[in-house]
């Protein structure tokens, strides 16, 4: 390749300097992308590519106008690209260019998305031994100035934290880069850009220096986190600075996010419970979308944060409940608060913009108006005795109210009612704000008035009709006279242009005024810009105050949102306690109840009854029931009311849910391997204080494997982990566990079968189901009549045999059925021929089945679901049906 010189050469050598994926280089009035970058950008954004010849070679080139860069940048960054921006500046010998900013998903300030925009650095703790390293994480949202550090004991926990914050950009530390497990999960589970920032930034000394510089000397001790978390924090700070986002001033506070304070919700659970998006990846229909009635984007962010990070502190939760309770009965006050907040803007984001220097005068008006919302909301609260007595009053007192008032007054005195969005052309400030400016404004107004009155004066003085005075770029100020009157203009009028119906003139006097006008405009523009920058910097130094006010308003917004939802949907305040009991009377699923005539259900879990085996026919409502219990528990731990008639809820330290691979496969996500590794994670992480929800776990493999795993997992959860557990299963064998294990109880979802028709009652009752209704479902699904009939016969026979056996005593304890790993067979403890259908099929009564049916059953059993494609399966089923029809 020939050495590129000239402009393309400059582009290529700037590109060497940056790790960004793309480079936008200013060339006069355009930002240009060259070479491969031009092709990429053109592809992504539908831009035209032209060819640029440079020293004998030709290069693709794509450009966007200078003022239009932002939307293009946003679009590229949202697609995951990191874009470096090089600006052009004057030098003695012409001009040169320099990279001024690297815009990445995590450092994009021009976001229009209400969601938080976190970037995260992850550092492995080199002092942790064994193959279970600990991790330190630092999360920063440049758009709001939020900065948090967290620690994780292992990769799973790290992933849990990551999933919670849902970062858009991940900076792995040096060791994490070779940690394929964690990186693999990050790639698979998060939609984040991976950025390899220079390794020195992660060095403990350098990083802790950066943290101290930013947040103050005592920070590292105060946080009480390990070296790796500090290293992560330092690396993020350096990265933010290096990319030129220039928002460090708005990062005023660093907080440690402690897992102990929060309910563990691992990544899979967050997805299964459809917290912020449905399994199909849609926002609509998620728990968050359902309960979100916030009026501001900051309120929405906070409510989402609560959902993703439920709390474990009774005190914190009861305070939230108190506010929600007071607000839920104060409909009028809630409306008033909603009206005030409806006018409020995102203060945290505005503080970042001020720090970055991109806030304009309208942004400062937004700051002023939003600061005014604080006393307005406080007035509403004070006027309502219930609210005044609630923690809301204290929440609104948290920000420095005097400082907020002063800043608001400053901005009110300074900025005009409706300033323009450009900050360089004056008219931003009010008269009276600044003495020198006042003089300029006075003079400016005088000249303007003179010019405005000129047309009338000229008409009168010279007896002219059809006179207007105006200005444009080429002619400057001019007097325009209609054609009919143009001949009568006085001699001192100097003609500058002839138009179709009029002529344009100027005079010495007008020219002089024009010069003065231009001088004044320039002076006013410069002076106002100078004053504006001062004011903006002043606002930037109050970033923390703005964040505090923003936080208080967001908190009220989120609480009011919970109150609104509670009031509109007849939710009740759950009684929270630190014991084990979980009792929900007539509970509903918070999302499903919105669209369905929901049949309420009870649940009771306590010391003596900590493990429920949930059975019931397919489609009867098992999954919904269990998710409903988990969702109610979760809502209770954000301080929300819950969909039930009444509820008593013992706080949990974690919620874990797993859905069997087969159900997940339907959504094209999971494999049996994933199901098992997730199960293993629960068995490791859940504690006596956790809530575990297992939905058809073990279903993703051949029957006996599945039963065995489910059986063993149940025993382990019951005996060792002792977590509160709900386990839905279609393995009837598991209902027998209730007799063997003291804390296991059976519940089933009732269905009514009459004349072969099944009605789902959706009501949960104690005890196991006795039927699977599978044949009914097969019938509904259109399986040929003969097969359905034949199945009924077979089932009937099997039932009779079971009844005989039960009388005979051999299987009077079918619960003693155990799975013998060495033989791979089920056997009863008292009788090797236990209660399972298979043993009948193969046992003495095998003759009850004809050879074809037996063959089909054997084939069926040997199918490896995970190794067979749906199409193959279908053709097998067809084959079996044919065999059976014979
Ligand atoms: P299963 O897990 O037993 O196969 P699901 O929980 O998936 O059943 O529920 C099947 C259908 O029944 C879903 O469409 C669900 O919305 C509805 N459903 C479940 N429980 C109830 C209920 N209590 N009231 C009304 N509809 C329900
Ligand atoms: Mg289900």
Automatic annotation (TrEMBL):
<dbReference type="Pfam" id="PF05190">
    <property type="entry name" value="MutS_IV"/>
</dbReference>
<feature type="binding site">
    <location>
        <begin position="616"/>
        <end position="623"/>
    </location>
    <ligand>
        <name>ATP</name>
    </ligand>
</feature>
<keyword id="KW-0238">DNA-binding</keyword>
<dbReference type="GO" id="GO:0005524">
    <property type="term" value="F:ATP binding"/>
</dbReference>
<dbReference type="InterPro" id="IPR036678">
    <property type="entry name" value="MutS_con_dom_sf"/>
</dbReference>
<feature type="region of interest" description="Disordered">
    <location>
        <begin position="825"/>
        <end position="852"/>
    </location>
</feature>
<dbReference type="Pfam" id="PF00488">
    <property type="entry name" value="MutS_V"/>
</dbReference>
<comment type="function">
    <text>This protein is involved in the repair of mismatches in DNA. It is possible that it carries out the mismatch recognition step. This protein has a weak ATPase activity.</text>
</comment>
<dbReference type="InterPro" id="IPR005748">
    <property type="entry name" value="DNA_mismatch_repair_MutS"/>
</dbReference>
<dbReference type="InterPro" id="IPR007696">
    <property type="entry name" value="DNA_mismatch_repair_MutS_core"/>
</dbReference>
<keyword id="KW-0227">DNA damage</keyword>
<dbReference type="InterPro" id="IPR007860">
    <property type="entry name" value="DNA_mmatch_repair_MutS_con_dom"/>
</dbReference>
<dbReference type="InterPro" id="IPR045076">
    <property type="entry name" value="MutS"/>
</dbReference>
<dbReference type="InterPro" id="IPR007861">
    <property type="entry name" value="DNA_mismatch_repair_MutS_clamp"/>
</dbReference>
<dbReference type="InterPro" id="IPR000432">
    <property type="entry name" value="DNA_mismatch_repair_MutS_C"/>
</dbReference>
<protein>
    <recommendedName>
        <fullName>DNA mismatch repair protein MutS</fullName>
    </recommendedName>
</protein>
<dbReference type="Pfam" id="PF05192">
    <property type="entry name" value="MutS_III"/>
</dbReference>
<dbReference type="InterPro" id="IPR007695">
    <property type="entry name" value="DNA_mismatch_repair_MutS-lik_N"/>
</dbReference>
<dbReference type="Pfam" id="PF01624">
    <property type="entry name" value="MutS_I"/>
</dbReference>
<keyword id="KW-0547">Nucleotide-binding</keyword>
<dbReference type="InterPro" id="IPR027417">
    <property type="entry name" value="P-loop_NTPase"/>
</dbReference>
<dbReference type="Pfam" id="PF05188">
    <property type="entry name" value="MutS_II"/>
</dbReference>
<keyword id="KW-0175">Coiled coil</keyword>
<feature type="domain" description="DNA mismatch repair proteins mutS family">
    <location>
        <begin position="690"/>
        <end position="706"/>
    </location>
</feature>
<dbReference type="GO" id="GO:0003684">
    <property type="term" value="F:damaged DNA binding"/>
</dbReference>
<dbReference type="InterPro" id="IPR016151">
    <property type="entry name" value="DNA_mismatch_repair_MutS_N"/>
</dbReference>
<dbReference type="GO" id="GO:0030983">
    <property type="term" value="F:mismatched DNA binding"/>
</dbReference>
<dbReference type="GO" id="GO:0140664">
    <property type="term" value="F:ATP-dependent DNA damage sensor activity"/>
</dbReference>
<dbReference type="InterPro" id="IPR036187">
    <property type="entry name" value="DNA_mismatch_repair_MutS_sf"/>
</dbReference>
<feature type="coiled-coil region">
    <location>
        <begin position="496"/>
        <end position="530"/>
    </location>
</feature>
<dbReference type="GO" id="GO:0006298">
    <property type="term" value="P:mismatch repair"/>
</dbReference>
<dbReference type="InterPro" id="IPR017261">
    <property type="entry name" value="DNA_mismatch_repair_MutS/MSH"/>
</dbReference>
<keyword id="KW-0234">DNA repair</keyword>
<keyword id="KW-0067">ATP-binding</keyword>
<comment type="similarity">
    <text>Belongs to the DNA mismatch repair MutS family.</text>
</comment>
């Amino acid at each position: 390749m020939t050495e590129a010189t000239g402009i393309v050469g400059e582009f290529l050598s700037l590109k060497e300097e940056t790790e960004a994926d793309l480079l936008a280089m200013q060339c006069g009035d355009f930002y240009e992308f060259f070479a491969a970058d031009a092709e990429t950008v053109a592809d992504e954004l539908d831009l035209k590519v032209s060819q640029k010849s440079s020293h004998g070679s030709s290069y693709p080139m794509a450009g966007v106008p200078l003022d239009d860069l932002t939307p293009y940048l946003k679009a590229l960054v949202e697609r995951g690209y990191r874009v470096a921006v090089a600006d052009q500046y004057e030098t003695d010998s012409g001009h040169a260019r320099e990279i001024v900013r690297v815009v990445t998903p995590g450092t994009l300030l021009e976001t229009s998305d209400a969601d938080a925009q976190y970037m995260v650095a992850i550092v492995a703790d080199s002092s942790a031994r064994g193959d279970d390293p600990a991790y330190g994480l630092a999360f920063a949202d440049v758009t709001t100035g939020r900065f948090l550090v967290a620690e994780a004991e292992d990769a799973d926990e790290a992933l849990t934290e990551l999933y919670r914050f849902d970062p858009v950009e991940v900076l792995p530390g040096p060791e994490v880069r070779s940690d394929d497990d964690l990186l693999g999960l990050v790639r698979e589970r998060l939609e984040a850009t991976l950025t390899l920032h220079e390794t020195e930034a992660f060095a403990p000394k350098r990083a802790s220096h950066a943290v101290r510089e930013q947040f103050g000397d005592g920070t590292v001790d105060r946080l009480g986190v390990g070296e790796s978390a500090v290293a992560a924090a330092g690396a993020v700070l350096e990265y933010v600075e290096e990319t030129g986002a220039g928002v460090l001033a708005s990062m005023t506070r660093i907080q440690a996010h402690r897992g102990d304070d929060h309910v563990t919700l691992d990544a899979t659970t967050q997805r299964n419970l459809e917290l912020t998006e449905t399994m199909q990846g849609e926002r609509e229909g998620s728990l968050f979308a359902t309960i979100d009635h916030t009026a501001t984007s900051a309120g929405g962010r906070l409510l989402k944060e609560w959902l993703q990070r439920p709390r474990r502190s009774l005190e914190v939760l009861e305070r939230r409940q108190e506010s929600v309770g007071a607000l839920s009965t104060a409909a009028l006050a809630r409306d008033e608060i909603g009206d005030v907040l409806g006018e409020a803007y995102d203060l945290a984001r505005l503080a970042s913009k001020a720090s970055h220097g991109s806030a304009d005068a309208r942004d400062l008006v937004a700051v002023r108006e939003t600061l005014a919302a604080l006393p307005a909301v406080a007035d509403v609260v004070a006027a309502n005795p219930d609210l005044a007595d609630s923690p809301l009053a204290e929440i609104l007192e948290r920000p420095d109210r005097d400082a907020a008032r002063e800043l608001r007054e400053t901005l009110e005195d300074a900025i005009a009612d409706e300033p323009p969005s450009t900050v360089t052309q004056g008219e931003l400030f009010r008269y009276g704000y600044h003495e020198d400016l006042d003089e300029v404004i006075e003079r400016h107004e005088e000249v303007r008035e003179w010019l405005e009155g000129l047309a009338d004066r000229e008409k009168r003085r010279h007896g002219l009709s059809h006179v207007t005075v105006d200005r444009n770029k080429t002619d400057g100020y001019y007097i325009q006279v209609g054609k009919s009157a143009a001949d009568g203009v006085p001699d001192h009028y100097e003609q500058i242009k002839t138009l179709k119906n009029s002529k344009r003139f100027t005079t010495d006097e007008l020219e002089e005024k024009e010069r003065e006008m231009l001088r004044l405009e320039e002076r006013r523009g410069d002076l106002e810009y100078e004053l504006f920058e001062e004011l903006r910097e002043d606002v930037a130094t109050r970033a923390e105050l703005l964040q505090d006010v923003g936080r208080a308003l967001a908190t009220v917004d989120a609480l009011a949102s919970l109150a609104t939802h509670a009031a509109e949907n007849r939710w009740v305040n759950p009684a929270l306690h630190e014991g084990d009991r979980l009792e929900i009377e007539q509970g509903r699923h918070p999302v499903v109840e919105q669209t369905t005539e929901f049949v309420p259900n009870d649940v009771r879990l306590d010391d003596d009854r900590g493990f429920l085996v949930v059975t019931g026919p397919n489609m009867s409502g098992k999954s919904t029931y269990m998710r409903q219990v988990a969702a109610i528990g979760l809502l209770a731990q954000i301080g929300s009311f819950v969909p039930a008639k009444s509820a008593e809820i013992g706080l949990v330290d974690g919620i874990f849910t797993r859905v069997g691979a087969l159900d997940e496969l339907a959504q094209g996500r999971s494999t049996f391997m994933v199901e098992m590794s997730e199960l293993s994670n629960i068995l490791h992480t859940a504690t006596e204080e956790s809530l575990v929800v297992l939905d058809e776990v073990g279903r993703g493999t051949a029957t006996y494997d599945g039963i065995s795993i489910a059986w063993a997992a149940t025993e382990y959860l019951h005996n060792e982990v002792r977590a509160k557990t709900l386990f839905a299963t279609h393995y009837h064998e598991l209902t027998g566990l209730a007799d063997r294990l003291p804390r296991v109880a059976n519940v089933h979802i009732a269905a009514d079968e009459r004349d072969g028709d099944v009605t789902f009652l959706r009501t949960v009752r104690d005890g196991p189901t006795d039927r699977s209704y599978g044949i009914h479902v097969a019938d509904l699904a259109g399986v040929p009549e003969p097969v359905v009939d034949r199945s009924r016969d077979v089932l009937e026979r099997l039932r009779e045999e079971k009844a005989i056996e039960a009388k005979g005593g051999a299987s009077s304890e079918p619960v003693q059925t155990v799975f013998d790993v060495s033989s791979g067979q089920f056997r009863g403890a008292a009788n090797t021929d236990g209660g399972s259908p298979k043993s009948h099929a193969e046992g003495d009564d095998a003759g009850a089945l004809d050879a074809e049916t037996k063959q089909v059953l054997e084939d069926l059993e040997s199918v490896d679901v995970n190794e067979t494609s749906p199409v193959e399966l279908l053709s097998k089923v067809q084959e079996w049906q044919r065999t059976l029809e014979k």
